[in-house]
Amino acid sequence: MARQTIAWRAVRLLIAGSAVGELAVGIAATVAPGALTNFLLGATVEGTGAVVARMAGIAVAALGLGWWIDRSRLDLSRLRRVAGSYLVYNFGIGALFLAYASTADRVILVSWMVAVIHLVAAGAFIVALARLRPAAETGRA
To answer: What is the pLDDT of residues 99-115, one digit of tens each?
Structure first.
């Protein structure tokens, strides 16, 4: 039972932390896409690229908001719905930044950090979910 409590706390903490981070990044991308892309990627963005970056910012903020709303109301059914978006997003962003950082013409430490943080968060979420599985199947979660 203690293992279940720790796993639930870990899941809630991962989702809440990710929600706050993604809300901040989404707002930053919407308000100042050029400054954010320069910070994350060492690249500039203007014109149509800035519009697309703002659209992505709105989407990221919406995802963070959704995670924030569900962070403390997770039951097994909600967790299953949130888990898919959480894993796909974090693995996708982690892989994208890993690919960019490894092929960039110069070392951009922030890109490497974003890749690692997203991949570790996804991995930690999988570990926490695996610890919940036995209790979830018996209806004790």
So the answer is: 999 998 888 999 999 99
| CA-based nearest residue to 71, from 139, 112, 125, 32 | 125
Read off the tokens for 34: 């050029």
| Closest among 19, 14, 24 to 57, alpha carbons compared | 24
DSSP codes, 49-113: HHHHHHHHHHHHHHHHHHHHHHTTS--HHHHHHHHHHHHHHHHHHHHHHHHHHHHSSS--HHHHH
Residue 132 and residue 8 in contact, taking contact as beta carbons nearer than 8 Å:
yes
CB proximity list for 58: less than 8 A, separation 6 or greater: 26, 30
